[in-house]
């Protein structure tokens, strides 16, 4: 694949390899380059639908990490973007460049492939396009640790890294590794750029290395996700459970309870004493007491969601967010008697009624960028802060 660039300004070309990637559980060699994945290959073979296949390949939390004196950095990449038929095309995904942990520059890659999704029929059309360049210039002319966070909602094939000075993999930061699993909000839906996704904001405040397994529409207590988490080295683990189960209307209470136990049992097989936090859903008024399934409403040229279930069926086991929260709290309370490192956090402590009044959900499900910031700040304070389950304890 030919990409136009100036070989004089960036004479050093480095193939993108796994040793300069963080936040990915696997990589795949494609015809164009390296494709990061957030689930391992064996788990991907068990994925039942295109939604999760797309979501896990979107590199939320995945970043390149290297040390260099370069003042100009170019990343050749082939994005695969997502668009919805009948709605305006989304803006190009943002690449965040951090120097020493501070956001220093941003870039986008135009062109690329586009997956056009028809939400009414769930059909997908792939329109192929060219690769492009994310370019960062005028960086500090000194030895520095650089991270490039990839767009959180664009599948990104990494072709080459070009610089005006050599690079080497960044050294181990020595920071604790936080492994998080959740839904589209954890994935970053409606966040403005990759380091503004709420888990990234919380990780920065908590001084930890993030592995983000937030999968849009796909936090369904899948056993393969639990096994992937079991096998991933981590110092801290959190699982955010509820919204996708309810808005997909995929379970009744009878199936939900043992599924939660099984998910936690599997994680505990690989992490028997690791701090493990179960988080319920943030406030979502349309689903608090109304079962799913959730349905899109395209009126007004934007997508808004509404719950279509019958609240009268709660007595028969249909799930709502309030029912799920009560059951999660009960399960954790029961298990914590034998597992002192298991904790529960009500998601409404991250975003509740007062937050909704100030920062309403634009589509009735997902927070806007200010909402992500609020959730990240609250998580950092409640979980990483003094007395929180992920707080640093004295030796």
Q: Summarize this, please?
A:
The protein is α+β, with helices and mostly antiparallel strands.
What does the model show?
The protein is of the alpha+beta class. It contains 10 helices and 21 strands. The protein has helices at 41-44, 50-57, 184-187, 198-206, 223-230, 243-247, 253-270, 321-336, 353-358, 369-384, and strands spanning 12-15, 21-22, 26-29, 34-37, 63-68, 73-84, 94-99, 102-108, 113-118, 123-127, 132-136, 144-149, 155-163, 167-169, 177-182, 209-214, 236-240, 276-279, 294-297, 304-307, 342-345. Strands 1, 6, 9, 10, 11 and 13 form a 6-stranded mixed sheet that branches. Strand 19 (294-297) and strand 20 (304-307) form a beta hairpin. Helix 7 crosses helix 8. The longest helix is centred in the middle third of the chain and has 18 residues, at 253-270. The chain is globular. The N and C termini lie far apart (53 Å). The mean pLDDT is 94.
């Amino acid at each position: 694949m030919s990409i136009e660039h100036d070989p004089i300004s960036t004479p050093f070309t480095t193939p993108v390899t796994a040793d300069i990637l963080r936040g990915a559980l696997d990589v795949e060699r494609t015809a164009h380059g390296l494709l990061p994945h957030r689930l391992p290959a064996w788990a991907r073979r068990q994925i039942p639908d295109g939604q999760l296949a797309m979501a896990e390949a979107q590199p939320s939390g995945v970043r390149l990490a290297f040390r260099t004196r370069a003042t100009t950095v170019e990343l050749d990449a082939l994005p695969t973007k997502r668009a919805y038929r009948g709605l305006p095309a989304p803006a190009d995904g943002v690449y965040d460049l951090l120097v020493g942990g501070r956001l220093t520059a941003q870039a986008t890659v135009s062109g690329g492939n586009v997956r056009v999704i028809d939400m009414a029929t769930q059909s997908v059309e792939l329109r192929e396009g060219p690769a492009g360049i994310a370019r960062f210039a005028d960086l500090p002319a000194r030895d520095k640790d650089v991270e490039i966070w990839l767009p959180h909602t664009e599948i990104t094939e990494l072709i080459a890294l070009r610089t005006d000075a050599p690079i080497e993999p960044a050294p181990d930061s020595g920071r604790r590794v936080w492994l998080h699993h959740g839904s589209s909000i954890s994935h970053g839906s409606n966040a403005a750029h990759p380091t503004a996704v709420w888990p990234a904001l919380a990780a920065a405040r908590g001084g930890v290395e993030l592995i983000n397994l937030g999968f849009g529409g796909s936090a369904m207590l899948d056993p393969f996700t639990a096994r992937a988490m079991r096998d991933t080295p981590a110092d801290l683990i959190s699982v955010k459970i509820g919204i996708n189960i309810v808005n997909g209307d995929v379970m009744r209470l009878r199936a939900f309870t043992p599924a939660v136990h099984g998910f936690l049992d599997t994680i505990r097989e690989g992490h028997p004493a690791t701090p493990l936090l179960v988080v319920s859903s943030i406030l979502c008024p349309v689903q608090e007491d109304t079962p799913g399934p959730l349905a899109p409403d395209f009126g007004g040229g934007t997508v808004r969601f509404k719950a279509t279930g019958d609240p009268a069926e709660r007595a028969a086991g249909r799930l709502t967010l309030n029912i799920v929260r009560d059951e999660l709290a009960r399960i954790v309370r029961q298990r914590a008697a034998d597992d002192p490192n298991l904790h529960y956090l009500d998601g409404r402590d991250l975003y509740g009624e007062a937050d909704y009044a100030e920062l309403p959900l634009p589509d009735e499900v997902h927070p806007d960028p200010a909402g992500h910031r609020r959730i990240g700040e609250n998580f950092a304070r409640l979980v990483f802060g003094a007395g929180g389950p992920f707080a640093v304890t004295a030796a």
